[in-house]
């Protein structure tokens, strides 16, 4: 195994301590924020995890034979994963309702409320909002997560297709698709009448099972095996999707997601996914 260690500022003594703990044969710089400890003994996994947590480092055990070109599909959540905001919370802010909506969002992401029910409750609070608020959120508040464009460029270079699947809204996914060169997108559609939101969602809600179904639908369309898929998210409604992938990555995620993912990135940006792919 190789041990990937990532952080915004990794002191050399920390790397040497981990190399000693794991008996690594060498320390290689992968990027400014990532290092590879070559031929590391993964016996002391608990000790390595404790050391990294105590020193604000991300880490991951990667089979030495793994290569990025082994993968064919990268599936991403949108809100608080590919982008830094929860779009519905920012839309609600236009109504002066952000605290109420954000509280429901948080409970849903922790797995305390059924996602579909939580979405209906949140969208109902937006009834009467002018449709222009959606464009304002996109223009004024939507930002990509750090490292997002670097990750997508690396995926394209390796021939990996991309699927953005969101419990959020098509208004945003359809704008991000051409902007970022994404191959596939799926999300929920807000009903609009007379230029205003009706407080309802059209069609079947893309919930946890919906995300998993989209992953499998695109994977089968591309003729890929489950182990060739990478899935990435932050909330409880991403867990079913992540369970269908060969590698799952929790990005700045809720505890329930971090404990079930293959890897967790809590300190570095989305470009931290790349060293984990070999």
From TrEMBL:
Record GO terms (molecular function): hydrolase activity
DUF4072 domain: from which residue to which, for each copy? 3-48
Record's keyword terms, sorted: Amino-acid biosynthesis, Hydrolase, Magnesium, Metal-binding, Serine biosynthesis
User: Residues of the signal sequence?
Assistant: none
Q: In which pathway does it act?
A: Amino-acid biosynthesis; L-serine biosynthesis; L-serine from 3-phospho-D-glycerate: step 3/3
* InterPro entries, alphabetized: DUF4072 (IPR025138), HAD-like_SerB (IPR050582), HAD-like_sf (IPR036412), HAD_sf (IPR023214), PSP (IPR004469)
Record bears the keyword Magnesium: yes
Catalysed reactions, semicolon-separated: O-phospho-D-serine + H2O = D-serine + phosphate; O-phospho-L-serine + H2O = L-serine + phosphate
What EC number(s) does this enzyme carry?
Answer: 3.1.3.3
Q: Known Gene3D superfamilies for this protein?
A: 3.30.70.2020, HAD superfamily/HAD-like, Phosphoserine phosphatase, domain 2
| UniProt keyword annotation of Ribonucleoprotein present | no
Which cofactors, if any, are listed as required?
Mg(2+)
What family is it from?
Answer: Belongs to the HAD-like hydrolase superfamily. SerB family.
State the name under which the record lists this protein: Phosphoserine phosphatase
């Amino acid at each position: 195994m190789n041990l990937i260690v990532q952080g915004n500022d990794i002191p050399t003594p920390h790397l040497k301590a981990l190399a000693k703990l794991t008996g690594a044969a060498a320390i290689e710089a992968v990027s400014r924020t990532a290092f590879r400890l070559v031929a590391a003994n993964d016996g002391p996994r608990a000790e390595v995890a404790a050391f990294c947590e105590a020193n604000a480092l991300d880490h991951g055990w990667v089979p030495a034979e793994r290569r990025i070109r082994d993968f064919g599909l990268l599936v991403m959540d949108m809100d608080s994963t590919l982008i830094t905001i929860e779009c519905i919370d920012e839309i609600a802010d236009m109504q002066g309702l952000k605290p109420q909506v954000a509280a429901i969002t948080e409970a849903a992401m922790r797995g305390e409320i059924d996602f579909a029910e939580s979405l209906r409750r949140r969208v109902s609070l937006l009834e009467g909002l002018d449709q222009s608020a959606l464009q304002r959120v996109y223009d004024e508040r939507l930002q990509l997560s750090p490292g997002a464009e670097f990750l997508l460029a690396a995926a394209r270079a390796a021939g990996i297709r991309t699927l953005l699947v969101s419990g959020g809204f098509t208004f945003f996914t359809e704008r991000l698709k051409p902007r970022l060169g994404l191959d596939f997108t799926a999300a929920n559609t807000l009903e609009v009448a007379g230029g205003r939101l009706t407080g309802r969602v059209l069609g079947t809600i893309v919930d946890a099972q919906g995300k998993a179904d989209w992953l499998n639908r695109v994977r089968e369309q591309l003729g890929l095996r489950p182990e060739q898929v990478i899935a990435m998210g932050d909330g409880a409604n991403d867990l079913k999707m992540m369970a269908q992938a060969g590698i799952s990555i929790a990005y700045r995620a809720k505890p329930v997601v971090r404990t079930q993912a293959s890897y967790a990135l809590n300190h570095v940006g989305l470009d931290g996914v790349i060293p984990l792919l070999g």
